[in-house]
Amino acid sequence: MKIDKNENTEKSIVDIAKALGVSAATVSRALNDNPRISEATRKRVKEKAIELGYRHNSMASSLRNKKSKIIGLIVPRISMYFHAVFITALQNRLQNEGYSLMVCQSNDSVAVEQKLANTLYSSRVDALVVSLALYTENYAHFDGFINRGIPLIFYDRVPTKDYPAHIIQGDDYRGGVIAGNHLIEMGCSKIAYISGPLSCSIYRERTEGLKHVLKKAKVTLAKKWCFYQELTAENAWNSLRQIFAGDEVPEAIFASNDTTAVAAVEFAREQGIKIPQELKIIGYSNDPRASIISPPITTIDQHPDEMAHRVAYKLLHLLKDKNAREHAETNRKEIVPVTMVRRMTT
Amino acid sequence: MKIDKNENTEKSIVDIAKALGVSAATVSRALNDNPRISEATRKRVKEKAIELGYRHNSMASSLRNKKSKIIGLIVPRISMYFHAVFITALQNRLQNEGYSLMVCQSNDSVAVEQKLANTLYSSRVDALVVSLALYTENYAHFDGFINRGIPLIFYDRVPTKDYPAHIIQGDDYRGGVIAGNHLIEMGCSKIAYISGPLSCSIYRERTEGLKHVLKKAKVTLAKKWCFYQELTAENAWNSLRQIFAGDEVPEAIFASNDTTAVAAVEFAREQGIKIPQELKIIGYSNDPRASIISPPITTIDQHPDEMAHRVAYKLLHLLKDKNAREHAETNRKEIVPVTMVRRMTT
DNA sequence: TATTCATTGGTTGTCGTTACATCTAATTTA
DNA sequence: TAAATTAGATGTAACGACAACCAATGAATA
């Protein structure tokens, strides 16, 4: 390949204009396919642009247009299957519309989340999409977006208090209901529950859904079998050991993510507990690991694709219609259905 | 929370300057902690900035400085465990230095990769980090970066032909050697090999490493048991069916990723083939799934953290030293060691 | 023939920040 | 005491693209 160090100087539309004896405005219009430019001129301009090695300067363009064409995204961790799928789907849609996605990870740290929000705010992203960190209970770091009318959409892990942003969440309440009902139908009345912290919308709602159906079925959830904590494998093992340390032992475990469900299966295997005969397990998220382990785990699918689809739709709508932003007092919340994927642990 | 729609107008440093009766230049310096500004003025400026709801305009700043403070990243898929870990590690390091990472996915499509490279080129990223798509054999879409002296680093899946960019790759040749030796030591002489396409550096080198040790051990790799294809679960199943359709059957399978290794374990389970007694399996990447399946799979760890560390180091070096870019004819290639994680499939 | 108007293009000014070159007053040095 | 230095602040000119407004041409219409 050829290296052309002479071309190293950046050319601007002014250089093209000079070379062609036209004005910079004409060049700008030609490159942007403005209809006010004749086909002939457009062609001349574009050819000269290539010849000179011109490249569009989006900094200048952004400054002038007051639009960065960048959407900020804050997720807890991209390594979570749900979010990885979501990101991919969202990115594909936005790319078609000429937007880039700035993907950031909070690592489930409130402090990092705050810092990222500020950075993205200063970076002048055209919109922000957020799935909150585990313990975020104050949303002041997003106020700037609200005040400036910059589209702000929360998805999956959304604010638990009233906050004037758009919200697209999974039907976590229903997820709790489905899981609870399923276990009841399987004849379980002694259920252990390993959940994420209740500061987080998704776990709070799943818990409510679960408790609702258990109450209806007159099944009580023993306090000693309930855990609300970060859902790591390590925490799961600790809780499982605690659960199975006593004389009485549960018939089922509802784990609020699949990492925990996987840990439960491994724990049972280690302890020689038969699944599903002696212990039923249901997870959440439909992570690929849930289907690979033996026995494969019954879990709740959150349909990240569908969620991304809805977020993208709403986002592009808000981005286009300045009005939509002002008058969106109603209809700010959408719920995406969940479905159970039944496998061999129940 | 309070919504202050009056504050909606964007303030610039000029507004701060006016409000304070100083010049815009002074405000700029004060906000950037330039030492040529008195402590008193600096404080006054910063307070007024907060009072007016000022936010830094990085578009204007970028235009002026000719630096976007954004690093482009192109990966095949963020859902691949190796890349997810790599991204997270890289991002954490760059964030500390004030850089943002623009993460893009090629979805293993050459066309998408080309489009992304062009977009990132026009977006004026300060540097580009790339892991190539499966079938990328031409690198012209990165020439712009080379010509302009913009730092360009390939990692993991790197160009197979000579290309004047920086390269940080895993020791895939050694990975092939290790896997091959391990299987030979286990007494296997009939080995099936499911690899990615040889257009891709990593698979090419693993293949060479494997062939080298097999030759040394006088073990031949049967053509009918060699596959070079996209490493999806579906392709894996097809190949496995083909492999086990004949009379003769292999003693071991070397799968060049863990998706394939997982498929092999599942296939063996379905066919009632005993692992590792009748069939040994070794994978590649140390994906979490490899440790969760039963039996857990022996695999090669590529140390994505370490690779990210090296990429970040080189990147920041190139970004700082303009000279480093010019005189980097030598030392453009680094190799990151791999290690085998032995589990129950061998 | 006079008037309209569509087509094509040019002129000017602006976006917000910051580097460079100055400038002023106070302080230090010879 | 005069000259030199310096701390602190200022003014101005880009950076590159593009929107808003304006101007010239020629064809179509009245």
TrEMBL record, chains A, B:
UniProt domain HTH lacI-type: residue ranges: 11-65
GO molecular function, one term: transcription cis-regulatory region binding
Signal peptide boundaries: none
Domain of life from the UniProt record: Bacteria
UniProt KW keywords: DNA-binding, Transcription, Transcription regulation
Listed PANTHER family: HTH-TYPE TRANSCRIPTIONAL REGULATOR GALS (PTHR30146:SF109), LACI-RELATED TRANSCRIPTIONAL REPRESSOR (PTHR30146)
UniProt-recorded name of the protein: Transcriptional regulator, LacI family
Organism: Olivibacter domesticus (Pseudosphingobacterium domesticum)
